[in-house]
Amino acid sequence: xKLKSKILSLILVAVLTFSLPTLAFASTHTNTSxxxxxxxxxxxxxxxxxxxxxxxxxxMDIVVSYPGKYITYxxxxxxxxxGAQLPFNASVNAGNIxxxxxxxxxxxxxxPLSPSYYKNPSDLTDLNAGxxxxxxxxxxxxxxVGYATYxxxxxxxxxxxxxxxxxxxx
Amino acid sequence: MKKSKKILVASTLxxxxxxxxxFYFSSNTKADQTVSQHVFSSLAQEHQNGESKQEKPFxxxxxxxxxxxxxxAFKESKNVIQRNNGQQVLSDEQIKAEFIKEAVSExxxxxxxxxxxxxxxxxxxxxxxxxxxxxxxxxxxxxxxxYIAALGITEDEYWNQYAIPAYQQxxxxxxxxxxxxxxxxxxNASISDSxxxxxxxxxxxxxxxxxxxxxxx
Lengths: 170, 217
Hints:
The structure holds two protein chains of two kinds. Chain A contains one helix and ten strands, in the order αββββββββββ. Chain A has one helix at 2-25; strands at residues 27-45, 48-66, 70-80, 91-101, 104-109, 124-130, 142-151, 155-156, 159-163, 167-169. In chain A, the strands form two sheets. A five-stranded antiparallel beta sheet of chain A has the order 6-3-2-1-8, with no helix packed on it. In chain A, strands 4, 5, 7, 9 and 10 form a five-stranded antiparallel beta sheet that branches. Chain B is mainly alpha-helical. The longest helix of chain B is centred in the N-terminal third of the chain and has 51 residues, at 2-52. Chain A binds chain B through residues 38-40, 42-53, 84-87, 89, 91-92, 116, 118-119, 121-122, 124-126, 153-158, and chain B through 70, 73-74, 77-78, 80-81, 84-85, 87, 102, 105, 125, 127-128, 131-132, 135, 137, 140, 143-144, 147, 151, 158, 162-163, 165-167, 169-171, 173-175, 177-178, 181-182, 184-185, 189-194, 196-197, 200-201.
């Protein structure tokens, strides 16, 4: 009986020794990067082509879980404010996130999920997100750049791609 | 000897790469210039042909008559967009369908009293003029300069005589679109942009179907 309780105590100590520090330091950190880029497109209206000044806003969130520095969630939210009020059809697509380490390109994470979100009917909007991705799981610091593209076959240029400011993923 | 060979190889490589880069960038710039020249020389030619034609009634849409010159000017604009985007120009039938869609949308906006005053359109035009002047991309300004030159008008004429009525029409259609989108949003809070675009296209098609369209050629 005594031996059994001693073994149980030892197991308990071992479990606590190994799991407590992990539990104590398990945390998540969200790296956010925002940017707005302005551009001009030309569209036909009445008898002439006229310019329309647009902006593409982008918000990139990268949630990193510790320990192990594991990316648990990535998302890109983009809007063209007032874009739905344009007299022509247009859309905006939240694109991929590219990762760099020490200035060198490492990998691109696609964002296959389309979570639901509140949409302002005056704006063009898009939100895409990525599933947990472990191909950058190490202790390095990465830089990430997210992309979003405005598209309309009724304007020239027909597309404009904006990118977020570099987000530091740590 | 070995060292001098290495230096020679390295120099040859650097010079070669330099020439390649210079050729690449200059050929790209030349290609852009060629596209741009083609776009605006075609526009100038089409515009001159249109100007030389006698103005005649072309289409009657819900009791409003549109002339052949209205249609040709719309076609010129559509052709500039297609050519500048590296696409084939649309057929006359496709452009006519677009022209009718725009006309019925503007008429519907008028019917619903979604008015845009000349002052409102002028203020918008002033904002756009400033945005073009402040654009960091020099192609934005060059495009407008070349476009105005191809039409054979001055910049003041463009902004004061042509752009204001064009914005009046565009803003009216924008207001109609917004009204439809707001109503859809009430019905379906999670509606997407593509679904809203579908709603707009269906609405425009409905207006076209219900319209009384008469060809006057």
